[in-house]
Amino acid sequence: MTHRLFSEPLTSSNSLALDLSASNKELNSAIFGDISSFCAYINQKLGAKIGVGGYLEHRVIYEAHDNFATASADFRNIHLGIDFWTAAGTPVFAVADGVVHSFQVNPGSGNYGPTIILHHPALGIYSLYGHLATTDLEGLYERMPIAEGQVICHLGEPHENGGWPPHLHFQLIRDMQGFHGDYPGVCSQRDLDFYAGNCPDPFNFC
C-alpha cells in the first residue's frame, strides 16, 4: 500500500508481533472468553507498543463467539486480515486514494462493530477497516472521495467494537462478492484456498 495506517511508521521500537494463534498455549478460554481478562492480557503483552499480526493465523479465540460456528459443526478460525492492537481512539489513515464502497455497524459478539470499506479503483482492490468507533460512520456516504493519508476512522472501545480489546482489523479484498458493509474476516479451513486468494496479505500487496 502507499500510505501507512498510523501516524508513525511501524518499527521494531514501536511495534511487535503478537501471537494469538492456536499454538499460544497461555492464551486460554479463561482469558479470551472474558473481555476484561483479554484486554489485560493484550495490554501486558504490548506495553506502549502496537501489536501486529494475524494474517492466515489459526486462532481458537473465535470459539468464545457463537457466530463463528459453521453448519458443518466446526468454526471459522483462520484470520484473513492483519490486526493492529493499540489504544482505543487511535486514528487510522487511508492507505490509498479511493471512494467509500460501503459502511455499517455489524452487531453481535465477536463481530466487526462499526466497519468501513473503501474501493481503490487504481489498485483494483478494496480495503476493510473493522472494530471502529461508532462516530466514524457519521457523515459518510457511498462513493464519497477519500484521499490517501486522510484520517478515516479510529479504534473503537470494547462496548462498540464487537466485544474485543481495542484493535483495527485491516483486510484487503479483490472481489466483494456482493457484500455490502461487511465481508468475512475469518474463514474455515475448508474455504482457505479461496479466501487466501481473494484476500491477499496487505504486507505483500502493491
Report on this structure:
- The structure is a single chain.
- By secondary structure, the protein is of the alpha+beta class.
- It has one domain (15-198): Glucose Permease (Domain IIA).
- It has 3 helices and 12 strands; from the N terminus they run βααβββββββββββα.
- It has helices spanning 29-32, 35-46, 192-198; strands at residues 15-17, 50-53, 78-79, 82-85, 91-93, 98-106, 113-120, 125-130, 145-146, 151-154, 167-173, 186-187.
- The protein has an 8-stranded mixed sheet with strand order 1-2-4-11-8-7-6-9, covered by helices on one side. Strands 3-12 form a two-stranded antiparallel ribbon. It has a two-stranded antiparallel sheet with strand order 5-10.
Short description:
The protein has 206 residues and is α+β, with helices and mostly antiparallel strands. It is built from 3 helices and 12 strands.
| Residue fraction in strands | 25-35%
Number of domains: 1
- Could you report the average pLDDT, rounded to the nearest whole number? 91
Q: Specify the CATH class.
A: Mainly Beta
Which residue ranges are poorly predicted, with pLDDT under 50 across at least 5 consecutive positions? none
Portion of residues within helices: 10-25%
Given the C-alpha coordinates, what overall shape results?
Answer: globular
